[in-house]
Specification:
Chain lengths: 444, 313, 273
């Protein structure tokens, strides 16, 4: 008897939750989808994107994979695709956003030679995906690629691999309110940056952790190493670019970089829980005024505004590490579209890419992603545009690891960096590990 | 698994051979084996063949996605020997496998003994303890992360009432392996418990009555009746927990993502990180093969040892 | 100590254990009812009624679609698992030739194969046979990977059913397959309940296969749909908590419904066998 009552109760709860979910659907607060003006027009488009080819006739289905994570940006992309489908009623665009599994899924797809018709190369247009991409150099938009991005996505023999929707120009994102509170100007050298960190740490009595990193999502530690490797080894007039390329690099020169990462930790400049914190914990703490600097771009800004819409977020280039050197950005492709060369609908895929390359669509993307567009003369207007304008003349170097490290090193760098912070290894051992993996992977 | 049955004459499956080949075949019962043909086909297609391909990959330097690769013999296996990370990974895998097996069985047995008695809350408690098994380990891992989290974690909220410093268990390479072992124990404790409950249920009451008449107290009864008769439950529970623990993946990924560095990685997570992160699919496959061999050896020797105990007791 | 007070103490112990084991679920519940800006301790229940997490999880993860997919995939898989598994176990339990013992070991040893080592070959297959993004593709995988456990349990259980039963009905003229379906299958109820719970849970919660083989958004299953919130870049703890609660309910209901057969089934399938 009692068992039946428990079962009955469970079923009731299930049913009521299900019903509650249903009845509130239309009236619910549109926190995520509706806040942006752009999205207003896209709701109907979105439904049509999902209803498949129900409107009769055999449609050509294009599968499109993107790395966009924010629901708002995903809707924006689907909106553009919907406009495209209106112009081309015989084509059905199926957008997929696999999120954090994107790279894994794409790797398995490459292994099976079964790629989407159009996909995002998120920084790997040449090295990783190059063999699978169609040449887009004859597309009308190709000459419009910006000067910084063109070499990054152009393969041998001038093959243009992808349309770059937005360019990454990674510097340092900072909490302008905190800097103002402690009377700090945005630092222009690494020493100034360290002095600023010291000042915040002591004056806030540990309330503010100058930097935020995550050992779980250890790409954040990798990001620091990658951007500052450029400052230390590539950007100075007397640099190591050549020796890294030809394999003669003396890896002892990596040790100072490892040391400066370790110093951040030992001096208490990083969040105390760096080893267990997740990337996703960061926006909240940034909004609470507990984090001052985040290495990398401001993609997380909207998550900060969700917690506290009054936070002022600033953006600056990477500070030089060598005396006399200037500031720099690490650049590369962020969101892109490439066409699978063996896709059944290559012509339609190119057509879709060309549609996204239209200036009005490129502006939409730039404004939503808060990143500079990959084509010239694209209007964009968002809270970070003034910063990009202010630093328009700062040199942009391609991501360090893409050019100077063999494939597969990124993860070694992130993991070993985390082990360094955890105190498992010393800076010299970090260099040794980098050297041995570098040599092993180069041979392959 | 069934007990060997020795009934030569009347066993319908072992009729004396006579008649034509087909009749003999039919009578031998061999066509009965056709019943597992569908299962066998699925196995060959979806497990055995792909696994052999996996073994093949372990002799290459494949990066996991490009169409071209080189055969490099056993170098992937040789590499394991001087890979400093592998020592940690092996140690962790054993902690996860053996540590949680012991914990699950000891606690599971205690729970089963308690919940086999006729007390209130018995049904509720059984369900509550089994509940995590029903929910995905990945999601349970995230819930536990909320407990051990440094900033705003449930445990630190309590600790901070008594002292100034929050604890950072998950960040401590020595402690986090045990935290994960604990969480894994919690997650799958229910399985050990129900296996022991099932074993207890199948012990005839008369045995206890006979022991009581012999003057045995509760403790003596446990060691004379319960313990030996639970042997089959033990075998199954130990072997299943060993396999599960040595293959542990979800909980680690949810709680520490194998970090800091590789400090809490297991063979499974290491394989994943090498495969997708370091683009070292050949090496990852070698680790997979090694893992298969290791788990086979451990679980089969455990099986043999434990079965022997069943027979002698 | 009287018997009464002893059972009281034991009941108290059981109550304590329950509380201890409910702690994570308590945290799950407080989290699922809290607004995202609410930074109070995880132990504190929110002082307001807030259901947005449930609404958002339901809508943003498209849980209705995910539910449909999960129900179809789980139901089909479990059905096929029970059919192929029980049938396969019959000769393994009843005809213990050397060859069949070997086959049995082979089937059960597949429990040990690490799924990742076979992922890529498996994926290539699926592309070749057109099983990508189809229900039947993923169902075949689930069936295969849950068969070792199923065969193990059924073989053990059938071993405990007296053979006299087979003989009696054979004399009545039933062929073996008929015998299996008419006489044995009804007796397999408890172990079938066990198999349904164990494999149903495994299929329902599966992440590894579903994420690779059901990539289309309209085919996403529950765990995959929810996982999009706890990827590296999102911080919707409340949604995940609410979503996991919703997703766990059907399995909990099934478990409660089959619970009474569950331990009986295990008792003869896994323990006596």
């Amino acid at each position: 008897m009692r068992r039946w009552m428990t079962t009955g109760a469970a079923i009731l709860i299930t049913a009521s939750v299900a019903l509650a979910g249903c009845s509130q659907r239309p009236g619910g607060t549109e926190k995520n989808a509706g806040s942006d003006v752009q999205n207003g027009s896209q709701t109907p488009a979105n439904t049509s994107a999902n209803s498949g080819g129900s409107s009769g006739g055999e449609k050509i289905r294009l599968s499109v994979y993107s790395t966009m994570n924010e629901p708002k940006n995903q809707e924006m992309m689907k909106g553009i695709a919907a406009d495209f489908m209106q112009e081309n009623p015989d084509i059905q665009v199926d957008f997929q956003f696999p999120g954090s599994e994107y790279e894994n899924i794409l790797k398995v797809k490459m292994a099976a030679n079964d790629l989407p018709d159009v996909f995002d190369t998120h920084g790997w247009a040449v090295i990783r995906y190059g063999n699978y991409l169609a040449d887009l150099k004859d597309e009308a938009w190709a000459p419009q690629l910006t000067d910084t991005i063109k070499p990054v996505v152009t393969g041998k023999d001038g093959k243009v691999n992808v349309l770059v929707l937005s360019e990454a120009k990674d510097g340092i994102t900072y909490n302008a309110d905190i800097l103002q509170k402690y009377g700090i100007e945005p630092p222009k050298t690494f020493e100034e940056l360290m002095a600023a960190a010291e000042k915040m740490k002591t004056e806030s009595k540990g309330e503010v952790s100058p930097f935020y990193m995550s050992g779980v999502d250890n790409g954040m530690i990798g990001q620091f190493l990658d951007q500052y490797a450029t400052s230390l080894l590539i950007s100075p007039a007397n640099n190591e670019a050549q020796s890294l390329l030809d394999g003669t690099f003396d890896w002892n020169k990596w040790t100072p970089l490892a040391q400066s990462l370790l110093d951040l930790q030992t001096k208490g400049y990083i969040n105390k829980d760096v080893l267990t914190a997740k990337y996703s914990d960061m926006p909240q703490r940034f909004a609470q005024g507990k984090v001052a600097f985040v290495i990398g771009g401001p993609a997380f800004a909207d998550d900060v505004y969700k917690v506290n819409s009054n936070v002022k977020i600033g953006y600056m280039p990477v500070t030089p590490m060598v005396a006399g050197d200037g500031q720099n950005f690490s650049g590369g492709e962020r969101y892109t579209m490439g066409a699978w060369k063996d896709g059944k609908h290559l012509a339609e895929a190119k057509k879709l890419i060309a549609f996204f390359a239209k200036p009005e669509n490129m502006s939409k993307i730039a404004n939503a992603t808060k990143l500079p567009a990959g084509l010239k003369n694209i209007e964009s207007n968002h809270e970070f545009s003034p910063y990009y304008e202010q630093f328009a003349d700062v040199r942009v170097f391609p991501y360090f690891d893409r050019v100077y490290l063999p494939n597969g090193m990124w993860d070694v760098m992130c993991k070993t960096g985390t082990a360094l912070i955890a105190g498992n290894i010393k800076p010299e051992e970090f260099s040794k590990k980098m050297k041995s993996e570098y040599e092993r992977l180069r041979k392959q | 698994m069934a007990e060997p049955n020795t009934r030569p004459l009347h066993d319908p499956y072992q009729l004396p051979a006579q008649g034509s080949y087909f009749k003999r075949l039919a009578r031998s019962g061999a066509p009965l084996n056709l019943l597992y043909a569908p299962a066998l086909v699925l196995f060959v297609v979806f497990i055995f063949y792909p696994f052999l391909r996996g073994v093949q990959i372990s002799f290459t330097n494949w990066d996991g996605y490009n169409q071209d690769f080189k055969w490099i013999g056993v170098s992937n296996y040789a590499r394991m020997l001087d890979d400093p990370d592998m020592a940690t990974v092996f140690k962790n895998t054993f902690v996860y496998g053996i540590g949680s097996t012991i914990l699950q069985n000891v606690i599971g047995l205690l729970y089963a003994l308690l919940l086999h008695t006729n007390i209130r809350l018995r049904g509720v408690a059984r369900t509550v303890i089994y509940l995590p098994v029903i929910i995905s380990a990945l999601i349970m891992g995230y819930i536990w992360y909320f407990f051990f989290q440094y900033d705003g974690g449930a445990i630190n909220d309590i600790l901070l009432l008594f002292r100034d410093q929050p604890s950072n268990l998950l960040g401590d390479p020595k402690a986090n392996v045990w935290v994960i072992t604990f969480v894994n124990t919690f997650q799958y404790l229910g399985i050990a418990m129900v296996l022991f409950l099932a074993g207890l249920q199948s012990i005839p009451k008369e045995y206890y009555e006979a022991a009581t008449i012999d003057g045995a107290g509760p403790i003596a009864r446990f060691f004379r009746v319960t313990w030996p008769l639970l042997a089959p439950s033990f075998t199954v529970s130990m072997v299943l927990n060993l396999i599960g623990g040595l293959k542990l993946f979800d909980v680690i990924t949810a709680m520490t993502n194998s970090g800091p560095g590789y400090a809490s990685a297991s063979l499974s997570t290491m394989m994943y990180l090498l495969y997708f992160g370091r683009e070292d699919a050949g090496y990852a496959a070698a680790i997979g093969v090694l893992m298969f061999v290791l788990i086979s050896v451990v679980s089969i020797s455990a099986l043999i040892l434990l079965r022997r105990r069943e027979v002698t007791s | 100590m009287t018997v009464r007070s002893k059972t009281l103490w034991l009941a108290l112990a059981a109550a304590l254990i329950c509380l201890l084991h409910l702690l994570p679920f308590y945290i799950l519940i407080t989290t699922s009812f809290k607004a995202s800006g609410d930074l109070s301790s995880k132990w504190v229940m929110p002082g307001y009624l807030y259901l947005d997490n449930f609404v958002n999880a339901w809508r943003e993860a498209r849980l209705p679609v995910a539910f449909r997919n999960n129900i179809i995939v789980t139901a089909l898989s479990v059905l096929l698992i029970v059919l192929t598994g029980s049938v396969a176990a019959y000769p393994l339990a009843r005809r213990q030739t050397g060859w069949n013992k070997f086959m049995y070991a082979l089937f059960v040893s597949a429990l040990i194969v690490p799924p990742l080592t076979i992922l890529v070959p498996l994926y290539k297959y699926m592309v070749d046979i057109g099983g990508m993004n189809t229900y039947w593709g993923i169902v075949l995988l689930h069936v295969t990977f849950n068969l070792p456990m199923t065969i193990f349990l059924y073989t053990g259980f059938i071993g405990t059913i007296p053979r006299d039963l087979d003989e009696a009905s054979m004399i009545d003229g039933a062929d073996r397959l008929g015998l299996f379906y008419r006489i044995l299958l009804p007796l397999l109820k408890p172990i079938t309940a066990t198999v349904v719970i164990l494999t149903g849970v495994a299929v329902w919660n599966d992440y590894q296969f579903s994420v690779f083989f059901l990539q289309k958004q309209e085919l996403r299953t529950f765990t995959v749909a929810l996982s999009s919130f706890f990827g590296s870049y999102t911080n919707e703890i409340g949604w995940v908590a609410a979503g996991s609660l919703i997703g766990a309910l059907p399995m909990v209901a099934v478990y409660l419904f089959l619970q009474r057969y569950f331990i009986t089934g295990l008792s003869s399938g896994a323990v006596k066998g």
